[in-house]
Amino acid sequence: MPTISVVIPAYNAERTILETVASVLQQTFSDFELIVIDDGSKDRTVELLQSIKDERLKVFSYENGGLPVARNRGISRSAGEFITFVDADDLWTRNKLELQLAALQQHPEAGVAYSWTSCIDEQGELLFQYAPTFYEGNVYAQLLIGDFIYSGSNTMIRKQAIESAGEFDPTLKSCEDWDYWLRLAVRWPFVVVRKHQILYRRSSGAMSSKIDVMKEAALIAIDKAYKAAPPELQSLKNQTLTSFYKYCAELYLRYSTNLDGISKAGHNLWLASRANPKVVVDRNFLSLFKWLIKRWILIGLSPNH
């Protein structure tokens, strides 16, 4: 039996799947199985996977069920003592599995290991790195305020922890990973690998509409999280909303190419200040506001507008 099961949910991933699979097969720790769940792809995803000759790779095809369902199908196929996921367009540094496994072995009480995240563009070039976080042990309150894990391609989870938390919520169209990390954090300590090991790919196509979908799902996930949270943590909700609306504003500012997107950024900054009026003197909020003004002027003055 392999020590680790790596699960890749893949839907029409022909542009990136080979690079993602290569970043797993080239890991310094090699005792793993690689399970690709083909989620009803209509392109050459499966054909490309068939060109890979590595006995650790297993491909299972299903009708399209969506990302959470594909992850759940991967879990049901997993034989490893530890399970980790990577989306079909993301990458890992070569020592990701080795260091996360070592962290969990050194902390037998912990159920989840996570690393720091970098963002890359469609060509694989580095865009920016998320600021390091050092939360360990009981991280439930910090995770409730904001998803410092950042993507579904990050965590390594003990099989017992997954069995205790259940499956990913198939009704969520986005933020199903944050919802899942919260359910794990209620039950298990977390441990951090203090290195940027996750390369999270941001694609520019129709980004504004993707942010709209993510925002709608996240608000459902936030509502669900606080219904489950104990009374002593209910006071954190405004902090969660403030943090989330600032994050939405940053995404709109980073990816919008028209005034409609910039207007949405401004609206989200307003929502952040309404949830917590004190945020307006926060340095990060002020820098977002200045960025908003600059983007508004640049797009407003552009000849294509």
TrEMBL record:
Keyword Transferase: yes
Domain Glycosyltransferase 2-like prokaryotic type: 5-247
InterPro entries: Glycosyltransf_2, GlycosylTrfase-like_prok, Nucleotide-diphossugar_trans
CDD domains: Glyco_tranf_GTA_type (cd00761)
UniProt keyword annotations, A-Z: Transferase
Molecular function, one GO term: transferase activity
One Pfam assignment: Glyco_tranf_2_2
Protein name, as recorded: Glycosyl transferase
